[in-house]
Amino acid sequence: MSTQTVELDEQTKDIIKATVPVLQQQGSEITKRFYQLMLTNHPELKNLFNQTNQRRGAQPKALANTVYAAAANIDHLEEIVPHVMQIAHKHKSLNVQPEHYPIVGKYLLLAMKDVLGEVANDDVIDAWEKAYYVIADLFINVEKELYNKTLQSSGGWEGFRNFKVTKKVIESEVITSFYLVPEDGLPFPSYQPGQYITVKADIDGEPYTHLRQYSLSCAPDEGYYRISVKREDENEQGPAGIVSTYLHEKINEGSILPISAPAGDFILDQQDHRPLILISGGVGMTPMMSMLETVIKEQPERQVIFIHAAKSENYHALKERVATITSSNNHVTSYTIYNHPKDTDRCDKKGYIDAEWVSSILPTSDATCYICGPKGFMRTTYVSLKKSHVAEKDIHFEIFGPAESITA
């Protein structure tokens, strides 16, 4: 199979569009089978995929959504460029390379044959092979630009570079911060507030390398990178987080962590001077802290509303830092929501975020809003902002893990 760009003819496009209803019905089944086939035949690629997301079905669902979006927009692939850009940043962070795409294409087509049976006849498979490589070429070109941009920045690198932990700070019962500087002492690039890095973890007893993405939780150009990591304990949703547990229990000051260069398109628009609304739940605070720390330095006159939801005060990370920023900056107001507070906890709202409360504290609907946290929290927040007449274009969000929508 070649990765050369192929111009799609109308017959091919018609076949692709005709398969859209099938993908809506069986897309997740196809992509689940794809991962089974590919990872069985290329187990080394398990290094690139979060196996927890595989078990929970999140990764197949995300791939199915991407394939569906491409098929539905096959006449106007430029419509999916924002979606491509988001995924391309993740691919860059994971060090995905052009040679991976033919492998993906091979097993995606085999999975379609397996799941669809007679529906996936030779014409359908031929059309999808052509379409796949047009879509793959779009990803490869976007990712190439991202790799080149990083390499051209001061101290930029491709792949993974060793960083030393200079400080480890317990922020709450479940969140710990790690301060990172290059082991080689050489320059390292700045980043946009809201971006993330990938940590490469080679853990004793684990057959494969684990890669996890963590948002940078401080302003750029502080002389270090900081990540604030939630320890994912075993619960009804699944087992304990392998990498988060490893970082909390095994990584200390002086430890070395290989990391990728910063990536991500969930970033603060510093050209916007309207009121800024930052809303986070749990460890979703991390990119918001980077944005907050940045805006008080770069846009000290900009009005900021900072809202954070946590289980209780014991689970509220970086609380003192936010309080210090709020008391020191007249344009910053912060609110705290606890859903299971102790009697001694102090907060602005008990329970959960809701539309009525959001409307009561918003200074204006003409504001730009950033949301990060658990999916259910973000869906509720998104609806609350819409009911408060905030324009959809002004609501930005990031989901930890495979991309999906919170607006459906």
TrEMBL record:
Binding annotation for FAD: 196, 212-215
Site feature: Influences the redox potential of the prosthetic heme and FAD groups: 90, 398
Catalytically driven reaction(s): 2 nitric oxide + NADH + 2 O2 = 2 nitrate + NAD(+) + H(+); 2 nitric oxide + NADPH + 2 O2 = 2 nitrate + NADP(+) + H(+)
GO biological process, one term: cellular response to nitrosative stress
Class of enzymatic activity (EC top level): oxidoreductase
Residue span of region Reductase: 155-408
Organism domain of life: Bacteria
Protein name as annotated: Flavohemoprotein
UniProt source species: Virgibacillus salarius
